[in-house]
Write a structure and sequence with these properties.
The structure is a single chain. The chain is built from one helix and eight strands, in the order αββββββββ. The protein is mostly beta strands. It starts with a helix and ends in an 8-residue tail after the last strand.
């Protein structure tokens, strides 16, 4: 096997982050279905193979009927500036007091630097609070695998 094939074998991946989100348009806007609200997300946390991360350009549609998260995407920025593009989908379960939980699956879609050809998948869970003004906070934890070019010895 070549060094590159060895370098891109799947490795365990864990992520934990605090997210802040807000509604950015009416139902049906930004490519969401007519009964889903578009949310923009930012946050920060830690991920294996990345260290401290910032979450930028986060986006998701959240169904007002079912709680489904669709069209989810975002970018994890590592401490050294390498970026990992992510897509995700799942479900949110809202309680009458505004608290909510959720779960789903995320996938790595490449990026920059050592993550330029990254692949991977991890299950995630979250718990948060939705406020009357349409903003929300959530703590997310995820665990699965990632494969990327670690031929430079970074991991």
């Amino acid at each position: 096997a070549s060094g590159d094939q060895e370098a891109e074998h799947p490795r365990p991946f864990k992520v934990g982050m605090e997210l802040r989100s807000s509604v950015i348009g009416p139902p049906g806007s930004f490519g969401c279905d007519p009964m889903s609200l578009p949310y923009q997300m930012v946050g920060d946390g830690h991920a294996t193979h990345m260290g401290k991360i910032d979450v930028i350009d986060g986006f998701v549609c959240n169904s007002l009927e079912t709680g489904a998260f669709t069209n989810g995407s975002g970018i994890y920025v590592a401490a050294n500036g390498d970026r990992l593009a992510v897509s995700f989908a799942g479900m949110a379960y809202l309680n009458p007091d505004g608290s909510y939980t959720g779960d789903g699956v995320a996938s790595a879609l490449g990026g920059t630097g050592r993550f330029s050809s990254a692949t991977g998948e991890w299950a995630w869970t979250l718990a948060g609070m939705l406020y009357p003004d349409g903003t929300a906070i959530a703590a997310l934890e995820g665990e699965g695998w990632i494969a990327y070019d670690a031929s430079d010895g970074s991991y």
